[in-house]
Amino acid sequence: MQTKYILTTLLLVLSSVTQLLSATYIWTGTSSTNWDTTSNWSPAGIPVAADYITLNSNAPNNLVLDQNRTVANFTINGDTLDLGTYILTTTGVTYFNGGLVTNGNLNIAGSLCHFGGATINARIEASCGYYHMNGGLFLKPVVLVSSGTSNTTGTGNCTFEDSLTINHSGVFYFTMGSSTNDFFNGPVTITNHASKEVYLANGDSSFYNANVTISSTGNGGVAFGNGGGVSVLASGKTISIGSGGFGADYLTLKKLKQIGTTAQTLTLTGTAIVNLVGCEFNGNLTLSAGGFLLKDDVFKSASTFTKTGTAIAIAMATILITERQALPTTAPQVDSD
Q1: Exposure of 141 by Cβ count < 10 A (0-12 exposed, 13-18 middle, 19+ buried)?
Q2: Tell me: the pLDDT tens digits for 98-157?
Q3: N or C: which end of the chain has fewer CB within 10 A?
Q4: What is the pLDDT of residue 30?
Q5: Which residue positions in the chain have pLDDT lower than 50?
């Protein structure tokens, strides 16, 4: 026990020392675009890896990286950060509140990354405890790895012009699109290893203009529109299960509206259940899962439901079928919800 107390005390001391050694710098751009010019920062100095930096609006010269740089905390509220061909690494708390980040790569780590309205024309590779998905225009591929140390929240207003990859773990939720539209113009890949759900289009509309691929290896599952939002799948695009599989909990699709008639196939395994509520499928639909919950859905083309497990019998209520469906032989039950 004494050793434990000593180690804890040492860690607290080291943390305090690190904070004391950290400095906070604001970019003024008074003299040039050069990071290493002390007069470009307030207070005068040159930020190093343990420091915190902030970029505000109206600096006479924008910051341009001349080599790979690392800082602890990073905030951009306005102006432009030009990464050139280099990498900016952050290791603490990162805030993209406004402004433009262009070129190069962002390597984001630490406890929190907040997206709140910036335009980012740089590749993002992030591995953080949690995120705030509260707006932004993302012009290059985005990879978000969440260790789930707290709930990821997202009001919406995010537009992804390139691919988005979400890899979630831990014991907290990952939520996007709670109150404002999100637009996904590149492929979306979601893998949930967590014990809590990934929620997309949670409270408002989300538009998927490229293919969506979903995997779930934990007990959290994935849900679209769980809080009342609408998901719109563009013509010619698909939603499917990825190579990681989907073997437990629920894949919930609420108010998913398919544009066009592209065939859709979802193959889940184990005890995984497909929960469809208020969805509209125009093309052929092939579903295979341990069980099904179907309510207020519209199937306009031939649809096949194959129940592979004993998790739950197919449940049906107010379903409009406009083509002949191939349903499981299990007697239907009406969902009491």
Answers
A1: middle
A2: 999 999 999 999 999 999 999 999 999 999 999 999 999 999 999 999 999 999 999 999
A3: N
A4: 97
A5: 1, 3-19, 329-337
What residues contact residue 75 under an 8 Å CB cut-off, 6+ apart?
Answer: 52, 53, 54, 55, 94, 95, 97
CB 55 within 8 A of CB 35: no
| Radius of gyration, CA atoms only, the chain | 24
CA 221 remoteness from chain centre: 14
Nearest to 201 by CA among 148, 254, 160, 266: 254
Sign of CA dihedral 229, 234, 235, 238: negative
Quickly list H helices, the chain: 2-21
Other beta carbons within 10 Å of 10: 10
How far apart are the C-alpha atoms of 179 and 272, rounded to whole Å?
A: 29
**pLDDT tens string 164-199:** 999 999 999 999 999 999 999 999 999 999 999 999
Which amino acid makes up residue 116? G
Residues ≥6 apart with Cβ < 8 Å to 184? 160, 164, 206, 207, 208, 209, 210, 212
| pLDDT (0 to 100) of residue 21 | 79
Cβ atoms of 199 and 173 within 8 Å: the answer is: yes
Q: How many CA atoms lie within 13 A of 75 on its CB side?
A: 12
> If we measure between CA atoms, which residue out of 41, 123, 136 comes closest to residue 83?
123
Which of 154, 156, 121, 155 has its CA nearest to residue 137? 121
Rounded to two decimals, the pTM is 0.89
Structure tokens at 34: 């050069």
